Amino acid sequence: MTFFNNYIYRSNKYLGKLYLIVLSLITFGLITLYSISSDPLSINSSFMRQLVFIIFSLFVFFILNQVNVKTIHDNSTLIYIISFLLCFVPFFLTPVENTYRWIDLGFFYIQPGEYLKCATIIIIAKYLSNHHLEVKEGYIVFIPILIALLSSFLVLNQPDLGTAVIIFAPVLPMMLWAGVNGFTLFLLIAPVITIIAASNNIIFNIWGVLMFIIFMTFQGSLLKRVLIYFANIFTGLLFPFFWNDFLNGYQRQRFIDFLSPDLDPMGSSYHIIQSITAIGSGGMFGKGWGQGSQTQLKFLPVQESDFILSVIAEEFGFFGIAVIMFLFSMLIKTLLDIAFKSSDYFSSLVIIGLTSILFSHIFVNSAMTIGLIPVKGLPTPFVSAGGSFMLLCFIMLSLVSNLSKN
Amino acid sequence: MLKIENKADIFHYRTLLFILVLSILTLLSRYFYLQVIEYERYSSKSQVNSVRAQATYAPRGLILDRNGVVLVENYPTYILTVTPYELDNKEVQFQIISDITDISIDELFRRYKKYNQGRFLPTVIAKNLTFAEISQIEERRLELSGFQYKRFDERLYNDALKDAHFLGYLRELDRESIPFLDKSQLYRAGELIGWQGLEKQYETELRYSKGIKYIEVDTYGREINTINDNNIPAYPGKNLTLSIDSKLQQFSKNLLIDRKGVILVSNVDSGDILSMVSNPSYNLDIYRGETTDSDWSNLLSDDDKPIINRNIAGLYPPGSSFKIITAINLIEDGLLDPGDSLMCTGSYIPPGSSNTFNCWKEDGHGLVDLNKAIAQSCNVYFYETIQLIKLSDWTKTAKIFGFHNKTDIDLPNELIGQIPDKEFFINTYGRWGWSERGVLLNLTLGQGDILVTPLQSLRYINHIASKGRTAKLKLNVNKKVEYYDDIILSEQTWDRVIKGLYDVVNAEGGSGWRAKQSEVKLYGKTSTAENPHGEPHAWFNGFFDFEGQTYSLVILVENGGGGGAVASPIAGEIVRFFTNEQVEMVNK
């Protein structure tokens, strides 16, 4: 009993820390939004809208906090099916900006694809925890990957490449956490690296040799290892065909932009160049609050959501970025701590999944603003303006708080 | 508590933590590289060569009449804008502008504050710059950093029709109004938007689509280079062709000189409105350029209300034309044989009452059947026969003809008027303060608590002229012809009513004999509507066939006197316009 009390106290200590970090991030976000709104106190400004979203999300947070973990665990299939079906709703509504991602609720839009991410994590966690005795077997990876593929395929048709990719982010960390065999995980990552390496002959050759060495060091049937190795190589060789015949024009364009942002400053690389200029001109301590000329002259596109980190970088400089990166690191670290201390397998896995989602958003968004990866419409948790994702972040937070109370 | 224990491994925990630290360090080092090491390069880039997206404009669509006469076009003017961020010394610079333009410095500051959109965006502070002013600004350019003059199109109205209410006007948007607009993301403060009349109704069609031009600018926002790739061109708005015939409109307007009132002419078959005059009016040029507050308050406080389009927003008692409503109830419900005659002695005393109700003809009409009662507008006939009708039936018939409802014409701010029903009387006079028989004596003559707009009256006469299947009234000639709900009455009822309307104008003793024309068969009904504001309103509602088409007209002279004496001759003039100017009409 003493141990139990002790444990509750400790997990709540982590929760307190978590809330403090979230509060800091939200405040940082609001300060930035205030600076870029031309009339921050009007009801239509992104600042005021964000404030309303936060209050609404807090309300949802407190309601969801009453839900028992066992309810979530026992109904995970139902949660998944509902989220899955919700993703079909936009196909029956009028498209927003030519996509079927959004449901218009009147006061704001929700993006069911976002909620499917959570539901996918929960159902994978349940599968892994139900089959915890078989984690060392290779076949354990198939069901989680199939589930992720199913969700991803649906979202890809909305079409939403960003969310479709993010759905895969939690799968590997969750399997690692569950204790899946290292070689199995390597087999999963290898084709992805092969595809990326296929864009350049030299890198592809180096990777071929490296992969060969790794395959040889692992144990198992030689025939099997050789077959898988060549399957990988063929994937890499076939990728260019896939690239040319399967991807949409704008998806290809995003990759091309990423590879050479300086080629066409007024083309679609415009976003990356403007973003980098804004960030670079911020310097060590920034131009000051409300003084970012790149931002304020509206050179920077979608600055309140996708490029909010560029605004922070311009107005608060490297110092501001360091603070926000510190806060993000602490957010993820605290979540990892909570997952590690969690008393049951299922909760621990769900938290790892949610953490991966948050982290991939942070990483993809920051990397995009500094031109490390192609432009992706992914918001930053707790900082970017936007009702649907803010709500999702708070739902994830309430899940974490529920699971850690167990 | 769930049954399976957490099996998290410290090794896995450390692996993930390692990935986290590695990723964050990667990001931070890139930020550090851009912000600290490469700072000089990006800092100068942000100051010297910035690419700015600038909105470009195209002209708004023109408004034409049915024969292609331009009613509203665009007129280039020059405006002066100021970008707060680029100002050197606000007080001194504003003083220079004040000297050049003769606008007081307080007024300049007031506008600067009112239309401000943010430190980095231009704000309009003066309009209608003359060529002399522009050249002075150009001369002192160096002292005036932050100030820019730009072309800005305003509306120019055709001289003959610059007082036509239905055209409406544009208004300059200020920041407060934008959030309340339908498509607020399309608009910026300082742009013009259709605010009234057709300009508002057809805003989406008339408005240009904005384009985007990418330019390179320096720190002062000065354009140093245009980049031609990826520019999105601006497209002009669509022209709007009206059903209005501007010659007829002008002709009608001249018939109302020095009188308050309305003339409406429409084509019954298509619902096209050919003329829509509302007098008195005012000059739409007041919305151009800078209008002083006193001009405005004079216009708004004028007792004759020139600012109102009386066709859609003037409410009047309809008078005797409503006798047709009673007549339709009588024939349709078989309450009375239309051939039966009653005796009009010049007055009527309702059963159980001591009040006397008089006919307008003091000597009485003698023996009157339905046809004569309509033609000569006998009050006693309708006093007697209304006793057979229930209030609810009467109200229902009036509403079927579109009263107490919008005509759905393509103009904003149309009023619906009022057809009183039982509920209305209870709310107004209390449960015992009125009697059904008593109010019906008033209602049957189109008096009392009834209020209609002239346009509703036009719809009413169109329903009769087309025997129930009537095209919706419209001003846009290209708008698809739609129909009001069909009114289904027996053929006999329509014939009786139409015969009555024919006799009003053409039979001996008909109240509208002054409208009679030899070449064209005109049908109509005069009304003399008593009202609390003085002389009665004179009405004439009618229709006629001409060159295979049916046209209808509504004449209303406010406080003009008798419908027969005042409104009928005007109706006759309108019909004569058609016979004299046939070419214009047959074209469409």
Keywords:
heterodimer; A: mainly alpha; two-stranded antiparallel ribbon; globular; B: 588 residues; alpha+beta; Penicillin-binding protein 2a (Domain 2); Beta-lactamase; 2 domains; five-stranded mixed β-sheet; five-stranded antiparallel β-sheet; 20 helices; 20% strand; elongated; disordered C terminus
List the helices and strands and how they pair.
The complex is a heterodimer of chains A (406) and B (588).
Chain A: H1 2-36, H2 46-64, H3 69-74, H4 76-86, E1 103-104, E2 109-110, H5 112-130, H6 142-156, H7 161-166, H8 171-178, H9 182-197, H10 201-217, H11 222-246, H12 249-259, H13 270-280, H14 293-296, H15 308-341, H16 345-369, H17 387-405
Antiparallel strand pairs in A: 1-2
Helix pairs in contact in A: 1-2, 1-15, 2-17, 4-5, 5-6, 5-8, 5-16, 8-16, 9-10, 9-11, 10-11, 13-15, 15-16, 16-17
Chain B: H1 10-37, H2 39-48, E1 50-56, E2 63-64, E3 70-82, H3 90-101, H4 105-114, E4 123-126, H5 131-139, E5 147-157, E6 170-172, E7 192-194, H6 197-201, H7 203-206, E8 211-217, E9 223-232, E10 240-241, H8 246-255, E11 261-267, E12 273-279, H9 293-301, H10 310-313, H11 323-332, E13 342-344, E14 347-348, E15 357-358, E16 366-368, H12 370-376, H13 379-386, H14 391-400, H15 422-429, H16 436-443, H17 454-465, H18 491-506, E17 522-531, E18 534-546, E19 549-557, H19 563-580, H20 582-587
Parallel strand pairs in B: 2-10
Antiparallel strand pairs in B: 1-8, 2-3, 3-4, 3-5, 6-7, 8-9, 11-12, 11-19, 13-16, 14-15, 17-18, 18-19
